[in-house]
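> call design_seq(struct)
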């Protein structure tokens, strides 16, 4: 999941920096404050762009700079929380989410925090946080909030409720295959192998080059002791795979099936 904001306006970066330097020699305090805010916002946007591109050290550098220049901005704290999550420090991630929510309870932060709580296995807390995010009908990422809610419910063995939540996510974004993958995984976890297999096969028809779909289907076929079908699926995937990494993975899995 990417951390989404408006992309930075790179062409204004130099102009903003120059304006800030000039204002040190002349200009009102209000103008200096405004330019400081603009520069802090620019560092934030560059940091999030780096975060989305997987450049974690750069992301930390820019986001910490933004936080230093303009402290206690919820969106900056939220981005830093996600950066700490990616780095694997869940405690620091939680601390930043809580600090952000203490300043302003944004639905986006509540949803991101629900995702973290799911990863920590704190499903009841995750459910409560996801529901808080969904209380705001203006929140644009309703599908991801319903997915986080579904994960929290599934973690508490509330199977039917989780399936309904994933279905709601699908309604909000019909082009996103993640809710259907979540449903297939839920069937698999509850040993409803025929339903899981049917759904994975449907997804594979639409997404023949998706390794995630193939991995799920393979797990089902192995549980059903369908070795020949598993080899057929892997061979077909290897032929359709677009990356060398996917081809190599398929080759390794085929070798394991022998």
């Amino acid at each position: 999941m990417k951390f989404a904001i408006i992309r930075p306006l790179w062409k204004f970066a130099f102009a903003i920096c120059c304006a800030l330097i000039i204002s040190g020699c002349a200009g009102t305090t209000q103008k200096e404050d405004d330019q400081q805010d603009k520069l802090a916002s620019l560092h934030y946007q560059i940091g999030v762009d780096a975060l989305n591109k997987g450049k974690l050290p750069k992301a930390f550098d820019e986001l910490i700079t933004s936080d230093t220049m303009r402290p206690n901005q919820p969106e900056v704290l939220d981005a830093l929380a996600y950066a700490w999550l990616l780095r694997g420090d869940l405690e620091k991630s939680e601390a930043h989410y809580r600090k952000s929510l203490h300043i302003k309870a944004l639905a986006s932060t509540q949803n991101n925090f629900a995702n973290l709580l799911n990863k920590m296995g704190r499903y009841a807390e995750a459910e409560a946080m996801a529901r808080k995010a969904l209380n705001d009908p203006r929140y644009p990422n309703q599908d991801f909030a319903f997915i986080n809610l579904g994960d929290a419910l599934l973690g508490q063995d509330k199977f039917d409720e989780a399936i309904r939540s994933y279905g709601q996510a699908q309604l909000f974004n019909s082009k996103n295959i993640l809710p259907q993958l979540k449903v297939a995984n839920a069937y698999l976890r509850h040993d409803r192998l025929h339903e899981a297999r049917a759904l994975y096969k449907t997804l594979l028809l639409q997404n023949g080059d998706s390794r995630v779909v193939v991995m799920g289907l393979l797990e089902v076929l192995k549980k059903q002791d369908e070795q020949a079908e598993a080899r057929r699926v892997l061979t077909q995937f290897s032929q359709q795979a677009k990356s060398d990494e996917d081809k190599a993975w398929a080759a390794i899995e085929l070798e394991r099936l022998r």
